[in-house]
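From the shared-data thread, chain only:
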Amino acid sequence: HDTIKQDLFALSLMAEALEKGEGDAERRGALASQVRSCAQGALRKAQELIGAFTPEGFRGDELESAVRSELEKWRVAGSISGYRIAISAPVGDEDAEACFLIAREAIANSARHGRARTVAVDLRIEDGEAILSIRDDGRGPGRGGRPGFGVLLMRERAAELGGTLYFGPGPAGG
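Structure, as tokens:
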């Protein structure tokens, strides 16, 4: 991801030069071409990076074991001390993959940012809708804090499934 950061820095410098109108029309055209090429390269690198962390051929019946494995990874690392998982709703393969990716990001946020000791993951059907819930005993998001990239990505994944992401502290915190 360091090369992506370098590409983005280069893009900001080139955009600044374009904004200032430096050089003649030919030079600005060449710079715009460089911006496009650099942006396409950064996008390709980002897609490769994201692809490395996305499961392929994910099946709905693998959801519980995949989430359990993710929770266990954080427990073994000492980031959380315990977890609970209850998946009682069957989901299709595509939905299961999206649920896993949302759960994985939420678990990571709980451990990294929320400093949670325990995390609970539940998937159930309520009024004909699947409800995926990730709760923890951590400190929760800071007051007035803006959602980071991970939360925005979870929100986008939920929307692709026709769902909504609720993010914030629960009644007991976390």
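Strands lie at 82-87, 118-126, 129-136.
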